[in-house]
Amino acid sequence: MGKIKIRYFVCKHGRGGRGTYFYWQPSADLQREGWRTRRLSDQLERAIAEAQQFNRQVDEWRQDRDVLPNQPDTLPWLTKLYRIDDRFTSLSAASKRSYDQSLIAIEAWSERAGDPPLSSIKRKHVKLFYRAMLEKTPAKANAVIRVLRLLLACAIDEGYLDENPASKPRMKGRPPRQQRWTEESIQAFCATAQVADRASLQLAVLLGACLGQRQGDILRMTWQQYDGQQVTLRQGKTGVLIAVPAMAELKLFLDEALQKRRKQLLGEFDETVSRNLKVDRVDTRMAVKASPILIAETTSKPYKVDHFRHEFRRIANAAGLNDLQFLDLRRSAVVRLAEAGCTVPQIAAITGHQLDRTLRILETYLPRNTEMARAAIHTLESYRNRTKLETD
């Protein structure tokens, strides 16, 4: 392995040559500031990405530390403090982007008021701020107030406030999304993706429908997580480890995509060998395992979130599925499993939801229709007939 020049990226070999392990190891100065050595993924590509993410956090921390205002009593100062706090830095990249949008809105609110001291912010001010946003952008209003509550809780923890004026804000609840992916809509999307030569998007929707996982976890999946029979992953948001057998339809597409990826990388191997470069075929096989499952046809690289969102929307609209989003697949998977007769614990074992969360989803979205009533009566009659035969 050639030398990888990434700040604080360290490769260590196990005893007796048993594998290579990757670490993000900050300098002594950073360690005195509280930064700790982190064990990275055993997959080289993911380890590099994780190290680069830690480096970006260090850069943001250094920049924010240098520009903090002298007077620690305003919302702009508090947002900068919050951005270098573990409560923010430990969030996922997607959550950080979402929180940043709310923090920008909070800073703009403070600027319009002349950046008053934190102690002068009262509950009535928070309520007025919320109502001003609620009329035009209710979803954004709720998100901003949630972040404001966390931000002011940070101020309490740091000793700058005694009480939180944004606690229990009595936000207006939004009706849950009723959109569901049916078998027909899934087939319509897959057919449109196939015509548009976007097999990766077809596979992404099948993964979402069959596994019930979040978009971010699906985009990060590598071939090492598929053993030919089941998919194993640790959810990025909750840390829950799940292993789900691949349905026959999904297995067919995964096997086909895996064969295609192997041919592609082995072709690159043969081309490298023809140029008399030293590359081990074992390294190529390892590269297949480390490769993400979903590769964009337009770039031949893993999808970035915005690129995937754009391409998905284009295919969905072309299929006439304008009201469906990728995130609806996770909820739809729960309902489909329940309609098939799966129990709540069985559903949670597949999707990784907590049991109470699974129940809430079913309570909201599972239709109570005639087909389900017939199935229930059929189950009851089968039980009674079986019991009667055993008694006789």
TrEMBL record:
PROSITE patterns: CB, TYR_RECOMBINASE
Domain Core-binding (CB) residue range list: 79-156
Domain Tyr recombinase positions: 176-378
InterPro entries for this protein: CB, DNA_brk_join_enz, Integrase-like_cat_sf, Integrase_catalytic, Integrase_recombinase_N, Tyrosine_recombinase_XerCD
Source species, domain of life: Bacteria
GO molecular function: DNA binding
Coiled coil residues, start to end: 37-64
Keyword field: Coiled coil, DNA integration, DNA recombination, DNA-binding
Biological process terms in GO annotation: DNA integration; DNA recombination
UniProt-listed Gene3D superfamilies: 1.10.150.130, Intergrase catalytic core
Name of this protein: Tyrosine-type recombinase/integrase
Organism: Defluviicoccus vanus
